[in-house]
């Protein structure tokens, strides 16, 4: 079974609006870490933001924030005031346990920001 | 910011030949990873490496694959012999030691085309 699921294949928004991308995960570990990355048109993969499973507060970095709903195993990415250059594929990822082991990626959500 | 460098950006080889993909991790990072991505799809974990040893590997990490990092040198992924299904973009990543909250930073990938 896939450990990280992103059900939205593609989302299109108008710039300066807010967008939310969904992600659900599956794990039996009590300690885990959730990451969001984006992949630009050039193929570059950029780390955006992280949520630690033991933290109740939603992480925020710049115009990225997370909606962490632990009982639902859900970690949504919220981008406020979207810009054209936010157009990319966004990957949700999870690491189980508290060591530098592998991270599992979802299938990605394509975000298109239009003028 | 710190960057992971991958050399070359594109490699074309004939099926059955050997290929070595090179990765120059961030200088103070101690954990290294290889991921495989086909046609912009899901990022699939291959292997991670620490202190001269393979820590984890997936089913995709076939017997024809090997990794090493001689002291002060590149972290390499060698495929010998190559097969048509090895055509993909291979991403190297590295992270600091210190636990699961260390997000791997990715290079820009090497596109491998096996003919």
Provide structural commentary.
- The complex is a heterodimer of chains A (115) and B (115).
- With 115 residues, chain A is mainly beta.
- Chain A is built from no helices and twelve strands.
- In chain A, strands 2, 5, 6, 10, 11 and 12 form a six-stranded mixed β-sheet that branches. A four-stranded antiparallel β-sheet of chain A has the order 3-9-8-7, with no helix packed on it.
- In chain A, strand 5 (32-39) and strand 6 form a beta hairpin.
- Chain A starts with a strand and ends with a strand.
- The mean pLDDT of chain A is 95.
- Chain B has no helices and eleven strands.
- Chain B has strands at residues 5-7, 10-13, 19-24, 31-37, 43-50, 53-57, 65-68, 75-79, 88-95, 105-106, 110-114.
- The interface between A and B is medium-sized, with 31 and 30 residues.
Strand content of chain A: over 45%
The chain-level mean pLDDT of chain A equals 95
- The arrangement of helices and strands of chain A along the chain is EEEEEEEEEEEE
Distance from first to last alpha carbon of chain A: 39 Å
Using only C-alpha atoms, the radius of gyration of chain B works out to 13 Å
Unreliable parts of chain A: none
**Biggest interchain interface, per-side counts:** A-B, 31 and 30 residues
| Rg of chain A, Å, rounded | 14 Å
Globular, elongated, flat, extended or rod-shaped: what is the shape of chain A? globular
Tell me the quaternary state: heterodimer
Number of DSSP strand runs of chain A: 12
Helix content of chain A: under 10%
Number of helices of chain B: 0
H-E string of chain B: EEEEEEEEEEE
- Biggest sheet statistics of chain A: 6 strands, mixed
If you average the pLDDT of chain B, what whole number results? Answer: 94
Number of helices of chain A: 0
